[in-house]
Write a structure and sequence with these properties.
Layout: E1 5-10, H1 13-29, E2 34-39, H2 41-46, E3 49-53, H3 62-67, H4 69-85, E4 90-94, H5 97-109, E5 113-117, H6 129-136, E6 139-142, H7 145-153, E7 158-160, H8 164-168, H9 175-182, E8 190-194, H10 199-219, E9 224-228, H11 235-244, E10 250-252, H12 256-261, E11 265-269, H13 272-280, E12 284-288, H14 292-306, H15 315-324, H16 330-336, E13 341-342, E14 349-350, E15 354-356, H17 362-374, H18 376-393, H19 402-410
Parallel strand pairs: 1-2, 1-4, 2-3, 4-5, 5-6, 6-7, 8-9, 8-11, 9-10, 11-12, 12-15
Antiparallel strand pairs: 13-14
Helix pairs in contact: 1-19, 4-5, 10-11, 10-17, 16-18
């Protein structure tokens, strides 16, 4: 049997997570497959040889991007050389479109098939990119159901392959059992604070979360506050911020989904954790800030010109808005229950509250923590909506997993 070679680029933590799960599945079909490229610890553990770690190229905000420009350029050159050398059967870009779409052009020039995993969010902004994608990508694998149809309409062979987290996160985690494993009193009220996985993100978000927790603990002093640490390298930063704010927060090494599944409510920084919170059924508010220049540029320049009017930072809201256009889904659950959570920017109702930039104040965050502990109508409607989100993200048919489609691409089917 031929030994296939794959080049892959996953430029951030969420891509590393999804791609690692796909690679583990792929090795069940092709145990000897060689995979090299850019990724993180999870891809390395799954068997990929790292040419660069994604931390070298991952940025957030314009000011941070400038500081890593040399690293990004060096990694880009490495991947370009690998593609042009012609030693790989398949290139699998994983999200990260600003770099990956450029590399797709070199893959096509070198005659290397491109099977893109986790679609660039053309539905959200820069919709003109879909023409570029159609010219450079042989197969698109999407993790959100509404994306595949958008690509098919543009002539791209696209498949909705289901979301990795649906498989990773069980639908019926027993909260009492989880709390026992975590050493938490089953009768106590528990709040999770999830400030992100990047140092700059944590430095912006954790202080305001700490201040919100102090307000909430002033009213509910017996509440347990848990923070799942996104990586051991972040321990010093997190502990320093908590200590400086004189607040009692227990930093835990367990994975974020476990902590959130054991919690009654929480505050979550925009990103992968927001979808994890939805899938474990934890009522939560999504909280996010950027440096002021990046926020101004995104809100006043990018959004009016190239962003979709229904773009929101919480993926749960994007999914809810798409299903609401068909007359069903989580948003309908909230409105039918008499609950309307308005978007500050566009005015339309949301499923999950988003507290962004100047709205991300300690008082506002503490107010939502209060509702998650006492507003039982809100809590019930949210939980019903979370179950609908899980159903939306589940694979639709057998034979269409990401690993199976990669095998078909490699074998010319």
């Amino acid at each position: 049997m031929k030994q296939y070679s794959i080049l892959m680029l996953a430029g951030e933590a969420s891509g590393d997570h999804h791609a690692a799960a796909m690679l583990r599945d792929l090795k069940e079909y092709l145990p000897d497959v060689r995979v090299t490229g850019i990724g993180g610890d999870k891809l390395a553990a799954a068997g990929m040889r790292l040419l660069h770690h994604y931390r070298e190229v991952n940025t957030i905000g314009l000011s941070e991007g400038l500081g890593k420009a040399r690293n990004i350029y060096n990694a880009y050159r490495t991947m370009k050389r690998e593609l042009m050398a012609g030693g790989h059967d398949l290139f699998i870009p994983v999200d990260f479109p600003d770099v990956n779409l450029r590399l797709c052009r070199f893959a096509k020039e070198a005659g290397v098939k491109v099977c893109y995993y986790i679609s660039p969010q053309v539905w959200a902004w820069r919709k003109g990119r879909i023409r570029k994608i159609a010219a450079r990508v042989d197969r698109m694998m999407t993790i959100f159901p509404f994306e595949a149809e958008t690509y098919r309409e543009a002539g791209v062979q696209a498949d909705f392959v289901g979301h990795t987290m649906v498989r990773d996160i069980p639908p019926d985690w027993d909260k009492t059992e989880l709390r026992s494993e975590l050493g938490i009193d089953p009768e106590s009220h528990v709040i999770a604070v999830v400030p992100g996985s990047r140092p700059a993100e944590i430095s912006r978000m954790l202080p305001v979360m700490c201040d919100a927790v102090k307000i909430y603990l002033g009213r509910h002093p017996d509440t347990r506050i848990l923070l799942p640490l996104a990586g051991a390298h972040l321990s010093g930063l997190v502990e320093d911020i908590i200590h400086a704010h004189h607040v009692k927060i227990s930093v835990r090494s367990e994975e974020a989904p476990q902590i959130m599944a054991a919690s009654d409510g929480g505050l979550v920084t925009s990103g992968t954790a927001t979808l994890q919170a939805a899938l474990v059924g934890m009522p939560h508010a999504v909280v996010y800030k950027l440096d002021r220049f990046t926020w101004f540029f995104a809100l006043r320049v990018l959004k009016p010109l190239v962003m979709d009017k229904d773009l929101h930072v919480a993926m749960a809201n994007v999914l809810a808005i798409n299903s609401d256009k068909e007359g069903w889904g989580p948003l309908k659950e909230m409105l039918d229950a008499g609950i309307r959570i308005p978007c500050r920017e566009c005015g339309r109702p949301l499923f999950v509250p988003e507290l962004l930039q100047d709205d991300a104040t300690p008082e506002n965050l503490a107010g939502w923590l209060e509702r998650f502990s006492s507003d039982h109508v809100l809590i019930s409607a949210m939980k019903r909506g979370f179950r609908q989100l899980r159903a939306m993200l589940s694979p639709r048919s057998a034979g269409g997993t990401a690993a199976e489609i990669v095998v078909n691409c490699l074998q010319g089917r």
